[in-house]
Amino acid sequence: MEVVILLLKKQRGGDIMNIEALLIALVMYFAKFCDHGLGQPMVERPLVLATLVGLVLGHPTEGVMLGATLELIFLGTITIGGSYPADVITGSILASSFVLLLGKGPEVAVTLAVPISMLAVFVYNIIKLVYTAAVERFDIYLEAGRDQAFCNLQVFLTLFKPFVYSVLTYFAITLGTSVIEAVVKSIPPVVMQGLGATAGVLPALGFAILLKTLWNANIAAFFFIGFALVAYLKLPIMGVALFAGAIAVHSCYSDYNLKKLIASTAGVAKSAAPADDKEVFFND
Amino acid sequence: MISMIRIDDRLIHGQVAFVWTKYLGVNRIIVANDQVVKNDVQKMSLKMATPDTAKCSILSVEDAVQVLNDPRAESLKILVIVNNPTDVRRIIEKVSNIPLVNVANYGRISSDLGAKRKLCDTVYVTDVDVEEFNKIIDSGMKTEYQVVPTTTAKPMAELLKK
To answer: Are residues A117 and A155 in the same domain?
Structure first.
């Protein structure tokens, strides 16, 4: 990818920003398509997206690091149904692009990602108007028995949404980078230090939001084990990740075996008498 | 004990399974609906959408009333989900200890959106619906519009005035 950029740079002189913006727009298309087209396969998380942005801009290592930083903040931000708290995808792609293009640090990425992700929700709301209006069109097609038209509209809408975001991304990068640079430059060093400190605290907030939905007594132990590993045993994060991975695999297998066991014993009883919801409501 | 009755077009989905069940700490979910109870595919998919921490029963409105009035229901924490205000009215007429009606997503899954009045992003009503909502509110029931616990709850009466 770097070679491609260099080649194009030679041919087109200073026009490099356009190519970079195009590549970032492509990443945006991929992310938005995966998110709604493939049903949230978690490819659209900051960790993956910032890495991809890093790859296309020729800074893969910095991309991964930015991704990890952004992931911590957005860890608890999960889109559930119609409630859309923040556009994590747009926030992480644009923030990591600006930071890599301008050669700034992760604290700037955090500062940019949060407001961008919140602003981007407005874009979603506008697109939603179009998509809600399409429902009536779908109904018309169904009533007329036009199956093919129905399918075509479905495919078109699936491909159209990421396209809107890609176009916006392209312009955000080509027109916005100098603006962002000016804004970042105009922030006095004292404020920048403050933002750096805030960037350090935000992951804790991300964790807190995540724990609000995930916290239960079963997994609480692992939270404290993780804390102790880092705070007292001074284990590097890679070591903690290895422990966590091993535990996750182990509990997956034991859950799987347990489910198999339950299915083999309970299956007999179930097939004998189909469960009536009213009868079993008070049973444990 | 009943935590609340919720009106939701999609009955059990992410907002219910992920957020409300955890937030309310319920261990039972009743889907009260006279059509769904006859539809095995819908019943199966609703049960698949139920989180492990709660048990889901899909009942006709009449059966739901019977179960809710059973003294044994006192020791359980129950979330009741319906998909229209008429079923709410039918339930609250016969079940006394309901603290809250939660209106979330209503009226969007239908082919006559154009003929409906939009109260807010997720609630579209017909004249019949408004009448039913007014009956619910007039009975003294606390009726609030709130999609997820992190958004602010608005009194339903206020939305209807618009």
So the answer is: yes
* Global pTM value: 0.67
Contacts of B34 by beta carbon, 8 Å cutoff, 6+ apart: B60, B61, B87
> Do both A83 and A145 map to the same domain?
yes
- Are the CB atoms for B93 and B70 separated by under 8 Å? no
Q: Could you give the number of structural domains in chain A?
A: 2
Determine the distance from the C-alpha atom of residue A216 to the mean position of all C-alpha atoms in its chain, rounded to a whole number: 24
**From B13, B43, B135, B154, active-site residue:** B13
pLDDT digits (tens, 9 = 90+) for A216-255: 777 888 889 998 999 999 998 889 999 999 999 999 999 9
Q: Which of A278, A279, A284 to mutate to test the interface with B (most CBs of B within 10 A)?
A: A278
- Reported as a pLDDT band with limits 50, 70 and 90, residue A272 is very low
Q: Which residues of chain B have pLDDT under 50?
A: none
Q: Are A145 and A234 found together in one domain?
A: no
Q: Which structural domain, as residue segments, surrounds residue A108?
A: 2-214
A205: part of which helix (H) or strand (E)? helix A189-214
Residue in the structure block whose two tokens are 């400190």: A197
- Number of structural domains found in chain B: 1
Tally A–B CB contacts below 8 A: 51
What whole-number distance in Å separates Cα of residue B92 and Cα of residue B124? 22
Write out pLDDT tens, residues A7-60.
Answer: 555 444 446 678 889 999 999 999 999 988 887 788 888 999 999 999 999 999
Quote the CA–CA distance of B135 and A263 in Å, as a whole number.
47
CA gyration radius, chain B: 15
